[in-house]
Amino acid sequence: MSYLRSFFEEGGPKFGAWKRLPQSRRFIVDFMHFAKRVPSQALTRNFRLGDMPQLRTSLKSRIGWAAIFLKAYSVMAARHPDLRQVFMKYPWMHLYEHPHQLARVAVARPYKGNDWIFFQCISDAHKKSLSEIQAILTAAATDPVEDIPLFRLQYVFSMLPSFLRRMVWWGVLHISGAIRCGQTGTLGFTTVASSGGISIHPPSVGNIILTYGPVDDTGAVRVTLVYDHRVYDGLTIANYLAEFEEVMNQQITTELMELQQKKQPAEPVLEC
Question: What InterPro entries does the database record attribute to this sequence (predicted)?
């Protein structure tokens, strides 16, 4: 009784305030609604990249770790068509294999007073140079949101009522494997390494998710693939991670060395 008296004393009960769910969170709420139905597993490998950190920082043109990991994964995945497969329930349980790679890259951007997670698309990264991939990522991080079609579409889509968004999501994920991979990608990419963090088990709606932690000066880094256990077993993913590391230390190192040796245009001298 003393608790009840104190609760209603001094101006009545104290309640917190209800806050409207920001538009920026609606897409993520929908994503998590469908991701919780996927029996995903996370598998991690500690990569040893040797002198790659020093090699990367020696370049005159910046190449971020995100571009490097995206290119390396794509080179590895190009050898294995099963990394473009997703599990489909309808009209009966089957696997759908997409004809090409499509990475959906999470990009954190402040927009209209809220923090947003937008998703940029990069197709067949193994066919692009590191500089080309970096240019796409830089544009996604710096260009006005209104000038990026995928970001603009996501913003408008988030305005729809919840029941309409969920209907669209269900259709994208279940009606057609081609539509599903076209919208969600064969690879999802997310990382908080630049802030010193490690994402342990990012959610997935059925595609492979790639994430990594900070890379130290010795080239040590923790790399994780999240996979749908209905499509892959752990040993398969473990072998792919080993091959992934090999690609990083061979093909990607070679490309970085070529960039290092490439002559850069002289910077103009400004006379005041």
Answer: CAT-like_dom_sf
- Its CATH class, for the domain covering 21-259, is alpha beta
Domain ranges of the chain: 21-259
Give me 126's structure tokens.
Answer: 């193994």
- The structure tokens 């490309």 sit at 255
DSSP state of 165: H
Q: Which long-range contacts (CB under 8 A, 24 or more apart) does 160-169 make?
A: 162/26, 162/30, 165/26, 165/30, 166/30, 166/33, 169/30, 169/33, 169/34
Q: Which of 64, 109, 77 is nearest to 185 (CA)?
A: 77
Q: How confident is the model at residue 269 (pLDDT cuts 50, 70, 90)?
A: very low
Inter-axis angle of helices 23-35 and 162-174, nearest 10: 40
pLDDT of 4 higher than 80: no
Is the CB of residue 103 less than 8 Å from the CB of residue 186? yes
Q: Tokens representing 120? A: 């940029």
Question: Is pLDDT at 201 greater than 90 in this prediction?
Answer: yes
Q: Is the pLDDT of residue 75 over 90?
A: yes
Distance CA 198, CA 211 (A): 8
H/E stretch holding 111 reads strand 102-111
Preceding amide of 39 cis, omega within 30: no
* Whether the predicted pLDDT of 210 surpasses 50: yes
d(CA 154, CA 95): 27
Instruction: Give residue-wise pLDDT tens across range 91-136.
Output: 999 999 999 999 999 999 999 999 999 999 999 999 999 999 999 9
